[in-house]
Structures are given as C-alpha cells and as structure tokens.
Amino acid sequence: MRLVLPNPGLDLRIPRHEDLERMEKQEAADRPKWDNKAQYILTCVGFCIGLGNVWRFPYLCQSHGGGAFLIPYLILLVLEGMPLLLLEFAIGQRLRKGSVGVWRAISPYLTGVGIGSMLVSFMVALYYNTLIAWIMWYFFNSFQDPLPWTNCPLNENRTGFIPECQQSSTVDYYFYRVTLNASNSIADSGGLQWPIIICLLAAWTVVCICCIRGISTSGKLIRNIRTLLNGFELPEDSITASNYNAALHHLNSSNPDTVFGLDIKTCDMQKLLSEGVEGTGLAFIVFTEAITKMPGSPVWSVLFFIMLLCLGLSTLFGNIEGVVVPLKDLNLFPKKWPHEILTGATCFVSFIICLLFAQPSGIYWLTLFDNFAGSVPLLTIGLFEMIAVVYIYGIDRFNEDIKFMVGRKPSIFWQITWRFISPLIVLVILVFYLVTQAQKQLNYLVWDINSETFPALTSIPYPSWIYAVIFLLAGVPSLVVPMYALCRLIFVCYKKKMSSRL
Question: Where are the transmembrane segments (predicted)?
C-alpha cells in the first residue's frame, strides 16, 4: 500500500495526456519553445554551470578537505542532486507551467513552494549580476599593457608606491581598493562606487535584452559559449526551463556528466586560505595574478573575463525567467502587461537593489547573500518538492507521466531515491546545518589596513542587527511554504464558515 495524501481536485487541475497531445498541436505556432533538443540541453547546462564553478567551488573544496571533499560531493551528487534535478525537469515539462503554476496545480496549498523558489532565484540573481559587473570592470581594464594590477601605483607626491599596495600585493590592492574601495565594516556604507554602478547598469541591460528576446535567443547564445568549464551546480529553477519543453520531448537523464575539471597549478591554495581569502578572491586575485605571469597577459585577461561573462550570463537567464514567469502566474500585475514589460521592470528593480553592492561595504553584503540566500531556502524547497511529488501528486502518477514523455518508466534507482533516500538526506543536512550555525558566532572577513593581521583579511563578528537581514534572506523563503499553506487553510475554513451561515 502506497502512502499518498488526500488531494481532491487534482485531476481537474492538471491536463490529461490526451489533452497534452492536443494542446501541443494547437499551440505549436504561438507558444514559445526550444528550437531543438540541443538548445534545451545546453541551456539547462548553462543554468547548472556558472560562476560558482570558478569562484566558489575550488575554495569550498580546499577548505573542506581538498580532494577528500569530492567523495561526499559525488555521493550526494548521485543520491541527491541528480534525482532532484530530474524531478524538477520532469514535473515542469509534464505540467507545462512555471514554478508557481506547477505547485499550485498539484495543490493550491503548495503555491508557497513556487513563491519560495522565485525569491531564491531573485536573490541569487542580485549578487550574481554584481559579480558580472565586477567582471565587466576587469574586462574593460584588460585592454592595457601592462595590466593595471601588475604594478603598485605611485603615491600623490610620485616619490614612491602607495604603502597599502606595498604591504599587500598588486592584485589584492587592485581588487579591494581600486575596484571596490572596500570599507572595514559591513556597517560602513561610505557612498557609492560610480564605476561599479555603470558596470551594474550594463550588466542588467544585457540580461534584460536577452531575456526579452526570448528563450531561443538565450539558447542560441549559450550554445556558442558553453563547455569552457565543466561542473555541477543545482539550478534555482529548472522547472521554468523545462516548462518550455514539449511534453513529448524526451528527457535523457540517465547519464549526466558532472565532472569538475579545474586544475590551478599557479597558486598555493593553503596560503590563500591562511590569508582568509574567500571565493571571490580566487577569481579576482589568484587568477588575475596568474595571468600577469603569462606572456601576452592582456590577451589572456580579455579571454578569461569573456569566459566568466559567458558563464555568469547563461546562469542569470534562468534566474530571471525563474522570477518573471512565477510573477505572471501569481497575477500580481495587470494581465495586459506583456512579458517584455514585466522582464524590464524586474531587471530595473533588481538594478536599484544592487546599488547595495556598489557601496564600499558591498563585498561583505555579497558574501552575506551568498552564504545565506542559497543555503537553507534551497534545502527546504527541495525537501518540499520531493514530498509534494511523491506523496501529494503521487509517485505512480509521476511514473506514468515520465513513461508518457520518454517512453519508459524510471528505473528502480530513481524510485528509491525519490521516495526515501533523497528526502532523508536533505532533512539530515538541513538539521545538521541549522544546529551547527546556531552553536557558533557568525563572523565575516574584512579588508582592514589597520589590522594587526594585514594583509590577511580580518575575521570580525557581524553586528547584531544583521541577524534580521539573515532571517529575510534565509528564513522568509523557507517559511513562505508552510505559512502560505496555513494562511490558505485559515481562509478556506473561514470561507466555509461564512457560507454555512448564509
């Protein structure tokens, strides 16, 4: 006997297989869709492989045991990442809706899952595009020989080099002082950095134009820039991508290649960690220093930052679609608003919020977003997604859907992981993460020339008010799922009570 929770009205909310076939024929000319299978697959790869594979994964790998870290990583990739990825792709393709529409169709009480996913996509897009703005700054400054971060600049009297640069290094100084003008506290805003603002405006303009042009434009762009790096990073909203796939378009997920291949022989990672340099330092300090030692360094610098731009933009297309499509499903804006206006409005609001990262304290805000916006919320949402599909939508129904789409039912491996292993793993990781975070003081690293440890970054505790920000970043997207369900339950009960009085 299989455990499936009561879900009245499900058959009325989702299209039948026969209806899907008819809808495919009727909407073939009007509905946006991928031109071919390669375009869809490469776009999904574009969502999965991003800047995190360059600026975050190597740092996390080394700081958690080096090569030994890859053992649990690959185990969780097989038992957690792949099953959840396939589940999201399949349910989005089956129901042909965005994240909000999918979970609302399964059960109106699950609408919060889509809202939480939308919030995570939005917050990740904010700091990802800030990284792209920094990359643009470095790209524009790479057309110089020698590169501007090769030598220390002269002081005002031109009698020697700037002491801050001499005490640290040319690449450190260029990143923290010239590019970011970093303050020594997250509470010290200190105005705005106009060069970064201009780069942010350029970055959001590019993303906006590409998203307005449609899914085929992003797919064609990604097709021409992928395979520069190979890695794995769970998409924030893979449902939205598969939503544009034809229902009978085959998913081939039995043999995904997710091998990370990046070998940095030009830096001492242990030295990097001892100096407190985090993930951003890998892309903007370590790699840039390595480039200065190469013949024809400006050429290599231009190519390197073009590569980073491609990696970042391809991920952002998915994040923005993961915000715009759910907004349309929620009907929060007039129905006459076309997709182009909603996309433009989303990018404009995102640009305004990103001014937070254009302050001297911007790098500390970015690190805060990176640490908390995609941690607990993604774990919580992933757990609710698997429970929703297996125990509310029904695993037998889901198996039949996959058979309808690809011609065969999922193997026993997917059955076991979806039903038991993957939800249990997520729950254990979530509890362990919350317990460990609650037991330690939250610190962050700052660039402080007056510190005794300078030029190493200094670890200082977050101010007390930052915990409210952390709740907004991690708590709200996680709690929106049960809170929405509770509010809807109260509303339904109240409506029934009022109806009985009439």
Answer: 40-58, 70-91, 112-140, 194-216, 272-292, 298-320, 341-366, 372-395, 416-435, 465-491
